[in-house]
Design goal:
Number of strands: 6
Shape: globular
Radius of gyration: 15 Å
Helix content: 40-55%
Distance between the termini: 24 Å
Number of helices: 6
Order of helices and strands: EHEEEHEEHHHH
Largest sheet: 6 strands, mixed
Strand order of the largest sheet: 2-3-1-4-5-6
Strand content: 15-25%
Structural class: alpha/beta
CATH architecture: 3-Layer(aba) Sandwich
């Protein structure tokens, strides 16, 4: 994998930073790649746009995304702010319930009701980030079992079962949507 750039975006409180941490752990420790992880919050503690960016490479990386290869957008505000440097080759996953307006010049956009799946399958909308992680695992051809092990290793035991369910539902939902 030569220089692959991922951007995860949404609203503060949606678990966007956790997605960045889990993906960085997967690529850095499981795949043994060089990584740079950057996090950016708006001035609000919750509710403002936020992003977590991950650069993955075989060699040392330049510490900023120049064009995302992958973008997760879990809010309209995040989509509007963070797709400005995306192009027709950028693979995009959006929460279709929260991102209503997308750019037709970005053809690799996948829409899933991430928050709705979390609510229906786990009873907790806060699990939408892990539903997204499951969908991203399938979309990015990440080793399913390795990512399961990352979740088991990094998440506290008290929230593990519900997050494993959310992960599997996201993985399954992308498979059904394709």
């Amino acid at each position: 994998m030569a220089n692959y750039q991922l951007r995860f975006s949404g609203t503060g409180g949606q678990g966007i930073m956790l997605i960045g941490d889990l993906m960085a752990y997967y690529y850095g420790l499981i795949e043994d790649k060089q990584i740079v992880l950057l996090k950016s919050y708006g001035p609000e503690a919750r509710g403002g746009a936020c992003r977590s960016e991950l650069i993955v490479d075989e060699e040392e990386c330049y510490p900023a995304i120049t064009r995302p290869d992958f973008l997760l957008a879990m809010s309209q505000q995040a989509y509007d702010l963070y797709t400005e440097d995306a192009d027709e080759k950028t693979l995009i996953l959006v929460d279709e319930e929260l991102v209503k307006k997308t750019n037709s010049s970005l053809p690799l956009t996948h829409r899933l009701p991430l928050t709705e799946i979390a609510k229906e399958k786990t009873g907790k909308v806060i699990c939408a980030n892990i539903v997204a992680l499951g969908a991203m695992t399938r979309l990015l051809n990440i080793d399913h079992d390795a990512m399961l092990n990352v979740l088991k290793e990094k998440l506290p035991q008290r929230i593990l079962d519900i997050n494993l369910l959310a992960y599997e539902e996201g993985y399954k939902a992308l498979g059904e949507a394709e």
